[in-house]
Amino acid sequence: MTGYACSEYADSLAEFGSPRLLTNSAGWILERPTPHLPYRDAMGCYPVFRCGDWSGLKQDLDDIGDELVSLTMVPDPYGDYDENYLRDCFKDLIVPFKQHYVIDMHRPIKDIVSRHHRKCARKAEEQIRTEVCLQPTEFLDEWVALHQNLVNRHGIKGIRAFSKQAFQQQLSAPGIVVLRALHGDETVGAQLWFLHKDVANGHVLAFSEKGYKLGATYALYWFALNYFADKARWCDIGGVPGLHEKQESGSNGLANFKEGWSTGRQTAYLCGRILNSAKYQELKALNREATGFFPAYRNAF
Fold first, then answer.
1. What does the DSSP 8-state code read for residue 14?
2. Which of 8, 167, 177, 273: disulfide with 173, CB 3.0–4.6 Å?
């Protein structure tokens, strides 16, 4: 098991819930206290739930019992399932959540990347050197400094912010690939990927202010696509933040940036199941500020 499917990755998120293995599917969820009352519910690991055997997920959820109030997750868009199977597993919620920008690695890279992005990558390569970090665990402090700049720049909070402790475990997880951009001997950007079977997931990328000015984002993505050309069938560079994301061309800078590297999109679904109806209704009644989330007693995932 590698990447989002492995126990090491689940353990890295233990600040947000206690990892629990679903034995039939060999996937991990996080149990966490509920607001308002001393109950517990669960969520899939962020950003997607990945497991070893999708055919066992329904049995896991049927057998999970009513100790937990509810379960919410975003199944891996590349999982071995169809929408009907998700509806059998998650009886209370299944809705399109995000559009992941994906790259068909069977296509020539020069045909994948937009003209604008290729031009920016060539310009950045005049000053930026890119490489694979062969000892990811030794890169921890440099990476955390870069990532803190990302957090400060965009006001990232919660599970998406990741802690130093989380990254310490992720950098030693099976399937981790760290690519970095350097200006001289100074690291000005880096990108964490998880390679699982034939899919490479762009996990997190971060840059110093110098890295942004030098266009290291373009150099690093160009390097990543070339690196994974013979290692992955698909590269998934995720969606854009927010619950009501604007992804039409011209409406979102990050969406436009990702679109310039991608060949299409893959739908990720938000799924939920109520496991204890009585406790769910009890908690729901106490949330007077419900804003349309699932579960209804929470205002954020």
1. G
2. 8
Name, in order, each residue with C-beta under 8 angstroms of 29's C-beta and a sequence gap of 6 or more: 17, 19, 20, 22, 42, 43, 44, 45, 49, 71, 73
What is the strand order of the sheet 40-44 is part of? 18-22, 27-33, 40-44, 68-73, 264-274, 93-104, 234-236, 199-207, 186-196, 176-183, 129-132
The answer to whether 50 and 5 are in contact (CB under 8 A) is yes
**Angle (nearest 5°) at CA 73 between 69 and 76:** 155
Peptide bond into 19 cis (omega under 30): no
Q: Which of 247, 267, 185, 258 has its CA nearest to residue 224? A: 258
Q: Quick one: pLDDT at residue 249?
A: 42
Could you tell me if 111 and 92 lie in one domain? no
Q: Is 291 left (phi over 0), alpha (psi -120 to 50) or beta?
A: alpha
CB 205 within 8 A of CB 149: no
Count structural domains, the chain.
2
From CA 135, how far away is CA 138, in angstroms rounded?
A: 6
CATH number at residue 197: 3.40.630.30
Element spanning 243, H or E: none
What is the share, in percent, of the chain residues with pLDDT greater than 90? 91
Confidence (pLDDT) at 251: 46
Domain that holds residue 83: 3-97+269-286
Q: Which two tokens stand for residue 171?
A: 């950098």
Candidates 5, 98, 100; CA nearest to 51 is: 5
